[in-house]
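Key idea: predict the complex, not the pieces.
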Amino acid sequence: MREVKLFIVGLGNVGGGLVKLMKSLEKEIERKYSTKLRVVGAVDIEGSAFSKEGLDLDEILKTKNKGSIKNYPKFGSAKNALEQIEENWKNFDVLVEVSTTNLETAQPALDHIRNSLEKGKHVVTSNKGPIALHYDSLIKLAKKNGVILGFEACVAGVIPVIRILRGYLALDKVQGINAIVNGTCNFILGKMSEGISFEKALKEAQEKGYAEADPALDVTGMDSAAKLVILNNIVSSRQISLKDVKINGIKNLGGDVRNTKLIASLRNGDAKVQPEKVQEGSFFASVNGVLNAIEIETEIAGPLKFSGRGAGGRETAYAVLADILKIAAENRI
Amino acid sequence: MREVKLFIVGLGNVGGGLVKLMKSLEKEIERKYSTKLRVVGAVDIEGSAFSKEGLDLDEILKTKNKGSIKNYPKFGSAKNALEQIEENWKNFDVLVEVSTTNLETAQPALDHIRNSLEKGKHVVTSNKGPIALHYDSLIKLAKKNGVILGFEACVAGVIPVIRILRGYLALDKVQGINAIVNGTCNFILGKMSEGISFEKALKEAQEKGYAEADPALDVTGMDSAAKLVILNNIVSSRQISLKDVKINGIKNLGGDVRNTKLIASLRNGDAKVQPEKVQEGSFFASVNGVLNAIEIETEIAGPLKFSGRGAGGRETAYAVLADILKIAAENRI
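Result:
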């Protein structure tokens, strides 16, 4: 039985969801992957807990539920993620970076990821900041250190588009991408096409837990743009950054919005995010509510289309877990 | 640079397409996978060629173009695939079984695959016969011998549904599948809904090269059923065979066939293939021509939907190539 020691940074929807999933799937993971996942460390905004023997999953959830993980019995402390990485890097195999996305500086997640990669640790993340802002340097750093950087959870929720692009389509030539990658906007546009106002629809999306911590990231199109940058930087040798994306959000949209979707697209070197009318009866027209969808046009495989849930703590945690187990299955640990 | 030695059985659309793809992508494969693919053996219905130093890709295509590979200069012979496996098993790493599907006995591909797995060789195949008829025993045989059995090309053409089910979704629980997995039938139904007769539409599908060697496999629903058996046997502990599938083809379909698709479905232990009306504006309604599509309903990830080309020698060859390189990338060779 292989043992994989995880250091989890972030215990919000995704981190908490991951701990719950690991608990409910423990037997399955052992049976299907001959692997035992052990959480040796966990961090939130106030502090952390670390034990090289492993923390108890129930105790993590219980402690977090009452406040901060820093109160974890015996092993809790006020140390932050970087301090724990410095002190305990010999005691974990995979950094699981699932803290909140920061699209301005990518910090502090960027430092967590860089430090871990430099120390020869695999990294799995759902944090779009470092991947959207520093894709090229992080991929090179991972390669140089012979480790894997997994970020399936950064784009399009449960749709496994990252591994399809990096793995299955690696030899094909991607000619264009059209994508609906922000479930909140798709939900709001659907409501608006039923005659509900933008403000009411946004409020409903927030109440249902769909929106980002800062919903401006959704409705301005910034979240979609970050995902588009990631998609571009996987498939193109011409790396781009957020400022290369023409962005129009859905905030000031008026008039008839039936069959309007917020489309992120790459074609002929142009990257843009804008509301577009899609054809009635088309694939995109069938993508409703918080669903995400991606159309990839390639030279050999031709058009490939995918849709699935774009948000949700449990769904995102599943994508994170799948990345962790892919590393194990490829005999990297 | 890793070297992977391939023994290719079958030089039809898929085998020939694979040789061409390997040639055009040679540099890319070396660059992205640090891997050199070398075809050491190739087989067609009349004979074979084998050289442990490797055959020349252009010469394979040229020789085959003029008749049989048995006429390959110096290394050609009348030996069949089994004889070559017995004689040369120490000289190849991966059996590439891309001969014509036989849904009655799965032979001779079944013997090729079994023999190779028993000798500790990886196997990649587009041949539905062995996978549909002997899934469980072949998977066990591969596992026992510590090798990989890849069969992405068996179901839904270029849509990477096999690796999604075996890899990404391995820990999730698949609750139901609906699929359009026969491009010929989808093409014919589309033509029929425009008022063209079944016979004329079938003839057009044959002229365009979409139909199976024996088009009865398409229109009776048998080809879809074989793919459904494979999908079931990946996701369910309850293994089924072709006789467990309720099959209705499209041959005797009359009346208004607008929005009618040949749907292969798994739900609550029921496996069936039958023409069904799909809802206007739905995902399946947008799947036209020879496209394939799959809807997977799972417990954690929720609904996932995929569409892409279901047929074509080059496309199928790409799926085969991707399986070969996945084995290389996972450090199995």
